[in-house]
Amino acid sequence: MWGESREAVVRMLRASGVSATEADERCDALLRERAAAIREIGVRQILIGGAMVLIPIVFWLWIRFGPPRLWTRLFSCAAAIGLFGVWKLTQGAVKAAAPGSVTGPVADMGD
Known about the structure:
Elements: H1 6-15, H2 20-65, H3 72-97
């Protein structure tokens, strides 16, 4: 029921012998539960992405004010982690702000 359209869920409930009003109420409850689950995933992705964005910033500060060495390759890895963090942060923000716009099963969204 998580990745199905509202009409398909109501049709499935009606085929199971549920009345039309009860099917609508159950469908609304399921959609609210789905939206809450997507928001939770979105908030988790925002936190993970935010932490990953901080990695290259902290690493750059450590290079800048730490011992004078050339850390180009390590900084490149930290920058790549930071860019991935920006991507996760953006994904999480979309899911947290507009969970209704997200399609597909919640189980496939993962972290």
